[in-house]
Amino acid sequence: MKTAPVVAATIAFDAQGIAFSSLYNDRYHPRAGALEQAAHVFLQGNGLPNRWHGRERFVVLETGFGLGNNFLATWNAWRSDPRRGERLHFISIEKHPLSRADLARVHADSRLPALAGALLQAWPPLTPNLHRLDFDDARVQLTLALGDVSDWLPEIVASVDAFYLDGFAPDRNPAMWQPRVFKALARLAAPGATAATWSVARTVRSGLTTAGFEVRSAPGSADKREITLARFAPRFVPRRAPTRLASAACAERHAVVIGAGLAGCAAAWALADQGWRSTLFERLPAIAGAASGNRAGIFHGIVNPQDGTHARFNRAAALQAQGAVGVAIEHYGAPGQLCGVLRLEQSTPLEAMQATLATLGLPPDYVLAFSADDASRASGLPLPTAAWFFAGGGWVQPPALAASFLQRSGGSAIVRSGLQVSAMRRSGERWQLLDAASRVLDEAVVVVLANSFEAAGLLGGRDWPLHLVRGQTSEFPAATSGLRLPLLPVAGNGYVLPALPGGIALCGATAQRDDLDGAPRLEDHRHNLAQLGRLTGSAPEIDPSALAGRVGWRCVADDRLPLIGGVPAPQRLQEPGIRLDQPRFVPRTPGLFVFSALASRGISWAALGAQSLASLISGAPCPLEASLLDAVDAGRFVSRAACRAAPR
Ligand SMILES: Cc1cc2nc3c(=O)[nH]c(=O)nc-3n(C[C@H](O)[C@H](O)[C@H](O)COP(=O)(O)OP(=O)(O)OC[C@H]3O[C@@H](n4cnc5c(N)ncnc54)[C@H](O)[C@@H]3O)c2cc1C
Ligand SMILES: C[S@@+](CC[C@H](N)C(=O)[O-])C[C@H]1O[C@@H](n2cnc3c(N)ncnc32)[C@H](O)[C@@H]1O
After folding, report:
1. Which of 47, 300, 431, 629 has the fewest CB within 10 Å, making it most exposed?
2. What is the pTM of this model?
3. pLDDT per residue over 91-126, tens digit each?
């Protein structure tokens, strides 16, 4: 998907004080009231609240988030309903989102002040990606897609129960009501899905009908004599890609997770958010004792002028990491700071950096281009070059972040440490996990391999192009003479953190591919000190042999993206009718999922990666768009190999 800059709405008010868009020359809601319209047209029109009673999840998709009134009204109705289902998912697509200031302004006198306040607090930087915002302990999950409805609908991975069609009037905003929009809605419709809109325009009714909806009129209220309601009743149901939301039918809602590093713990948390229990097997005596065991690490997004796959995935992931790390620090006492991160730019001049930001329209609360002077002021050190400043970045202690994920899972996650899974075998519908003596440790329908590089080994060897990259960090007293530490993390070639609790300076890290030496090395400390010198201009007077350090291994895929999703089924690749041209079509091994290859970005990627994995397992709407899911899909290498081998 090619992203376009997000242009915020310009809000005006008409003579009655109703929010008005000069761009579309239309009001955001009728005079009779936004909440009244939401109740009559969208809730009642879709059979709500009745239809969500007793449901594991109910999924709404709205075209046009606008002021968020429909979301607030739906959330309020769900909250006030003692018979509500377990989870409400609300997906909404918005081309011109409100700035935070405008959102505060339009909800200043809200009749739902607590909900409007929570929405305001969670309001994300206006970047062109999906934003997953959680409310009411994640029982209400809002997925905001910022951009054009036609670009986003084909990218949404979800099975939708009710559609709220709420663009501006079709004659003023035809783009929102085109046939291809209705066709894309049909692709997302769950069996029995309904749609409602206040519009009675002929184009709307015929568009819905052509897309497979049965359309009828219903009485309107206040400003509207009639409204349009529809039920999805297609003559044929399009085939869904086998990897997308494939294993929704696991009644026990329990997964076994192998490995309790950042990936495994985050997976347990994300599964719990979808109502799943998990049991984690960890061969070490405690969680986060391998790659995830460092004293501290940094997280932030990235920028590239093409806004390609890596930039988009890293941006979406960094925004989710910001939320997860914020909770870990604020509610679970994790050592860390959301203080921003400076990433020194070695080769691009400041003007080019600024031009990139202008072209991509990335907002300042996500990233800024700092001159060397600005960067020096922010860090308190004389920095040599311009830098990207990622305001939502920071540092955190990875084991504490992992622990916070487990704590947030409540009683839904059990860790069984000191137990190595040595093999797996199929037994009927279930996977059995075996120890070295072939005793069954546990069994489950769904198994998640979150055991880094060893995932491939447990599957009997895979042709995933993964390798291990050894890394060593260096630690010494922050009070060392000659050392000046930055006020916030500074990264470039290597990174250096501000003084850590206990007065410790930490810098790193080395990167040695396929090097299995586990002992800290003197030359690596020298290397880290040299990097520190280049980053900060300071030269600590310390003997490198006096430095403490830690060695770990990153698991890195050749394309530097994680592995997320169903494990491919090699024995099924030759079956007739199997498509391999896109990762989403690669056939999977029932019940087997992988979340691995978090490379040097486990802190940044854990939350979003785990949420995406949990949605693929549980069938909940995915916080990652289809094209990025393809990019991280564990089946991508199969698909690429098939494309390379195909006759031209
Ligand atoms: C030196 C260094 C510096 C880094 N700095 C940063 C940074 O600043 N920012 C950042 O975002 N990332 C950083 N990283 C990367 C980050 O640490 C990793 O991406 C992340 O920790 C990977 O998490 P994981 O859960 O996939 O792997 P791991 O933490 O290695 O967890 C896998 C777990 O699986 C267990 N396991 C394996 N096989 C089995 C089995 N058969 N049965 C039971 N258990 C098993 C292992 O014991 C292990 O605990 C750094 C990494 C290194 C090495
Ligand atoms: C009537 S308002 C929505 C009101 C909103 N549902 C609420 O509850 O406040 C219509 C919204 O559609 C958005 N919109 C218009 N064209 C769009 C497009 N092509 N893609 C996505 N959103 C669009 C507008 O920016 C506007 O916010």
Report:
1. 47
2. 0.97
3. 999 999 999 999 999 999 999 999 999 999 999 999
